[in-house]
Amino acid sequence: MNVPNRGRRAPSVGYLAVLHDPQLGYTGGLLIVSASGRPLEFHCSTPLAVTRAQEILFGATLSAHVCGELIGGALVNAAKIKPTLLLVQHADAAPAAGLPVMLLAPAEETADTTDTTESPAADEESPASPVPLTGFDEEAAAEVEELLATLDQHIELAEPFERVHEAVREAQRLSTPEAPSSVAA
C-alpha cells in the first residue's frame, strides 16, 4: 500500500536562527526538534561576510537575501528531516522553503521584524507569540496548531532558539584558531 510521505513522518519543528557578529559575519543554525522538544537534527552554516558592494547593491533587501535565501535556504535544504513547521526569530530569516513558516519573537519584537543584525535570546518575561508568515493552507494551519499545542506542553516554545544560539557560538569557538600561547602541550 502506498501511503503519502506526509502522513508517515513524525511531526517536527525547525528552529532557524541567524546571528550576526561584526567580525565573522552572519552565521545560521537550524535545530529540528520532535513534538516533545527533543533534538532530531542540527545544522550550522559557516560565517558569511557581506561585502560593501553587496550592501550597496542589495540595499534594504540585503538582510532577507543573506538570512533567508543564502543561509536559511541552505540550512533547510541540508536537513534530512523536513520539519512540519519552521520557526524564525526575524521575518527576514524566513526562506522560501515550501513549508509553513512562523515568526516567533518576544511580543515587543513582533512589531518591528526588519532588524536582523542581532538575534537576542528569548526574553522569558515577554511570552513569544507565533505569527504565520508563509506556507499556510487550511490543512497546514490545523496541523501546526496541534503541533504547537503539543510542543508547548513539553517546553517553552522559544527555548530551542537558546539552544541554537549556544550551539552556533560553540561551533564558532571550535572553528576559531586559538593563539599559540593557549594551546596545551
Class inferred from helices and paired strands: alpha/beta
Strand content: 15-25%
Give the proportion of residues in helices.
25-40%
- What is the residue-averaged pLDDT? 81
The overall strand count is 6
Q: What are the segments in which pLDDT stays under 50 over at least 5 consecutive residues?
A: 1-7, 110-125, 179-185
Please count the helical segments: 5
Biased composition (Low complexity): 109-120
Region (Disordered): 109-139
Please describe what this structure looks like:
This protein is of the alpha/beta class. The protein has one domain. The chain is built from 5 helices and 6 strands. A hairpin with a 4-residue loop joins strand 2 and strand 3. The N terminus and C terminus are likely disordered.
List the helices and strands and how they pair.
Elements: H1 5-8, E1 12-21, E2 25-34, E3 39-44, H2 52-58, H3 62-78, E4 85-88, E5 101-106, E6 128-134, H4 138-154, H5 159-175
Question: Could you write a compact summary of the structure shown?
Answer:
The protein is an alpha/beta fold and 185 residues long.
Features of this protein?
6 strands, 185 residues, 34% helix, six-stranded mixed beta sheet, alpha/beta, disordered N terminus, globular, disordered C terminus
